[in-house]
Amino acid sequence: MNYTKISKEEIKNWLKEHLKPERYLHSTGTAECAAGLAEKFNLDTEKAYTAGLLHDCAKCFTNEKLLEIIHKNLNVEECEMLNYKTLHAPVSAFIAEKDFGVNDEEILSAIRWHTLGKLNMTNFEKIIFLADKIEPNTRDKDFSKEIYELLEEDNGLNKALLKCYKSTIKSLVKRELKICILTIEIYNKLLEEVLE
User: Fold this and answer.
1) Domain encompassing residue 24
2) pTM exceeds 0.85 for this model
3) For the residues 28-33, what does the mean pLDDT come to?
């Protein structure tokens, strides 16, 4: 099934024009990784590839442009605005729908929440979140290996997510950046689910 109104090649050409070369490599890597994870967890591989390909489509917009699109078109919580690095996620979902014709709610939600995540993510949202962190083109190979090992365990998706959140929180503290309360809530919930 095709989830966009234009072909993958046209999407890739658009991404090449609008993203820096490394970000384009990251996007194609995320698409391939997402499709692989979808296959592993019996989810729709085409849908996962589409979400992975488009997840960062607004990443190279200026902060001014991101904020303008958010203020005009989107409902974004104040907590999400604490860090400019996460603004591209809701805008990427908006662009995926408006410019690429994506109307599948799960794809849009997975793109929307691929940076912060959210409580009670679906397995599909979880694999897009993880693919963004472990794709082979630009991400740390040792970290990716650890995540893949966790995915083999019982409750592997939640264990892998928890590891990502631990890493993110440590990084934010180290860099003295503000932490969205949602991040803490998700971490606590995952910890509960893993320790049960």
Assistant:
1) 8-140
2) yes
3) 98
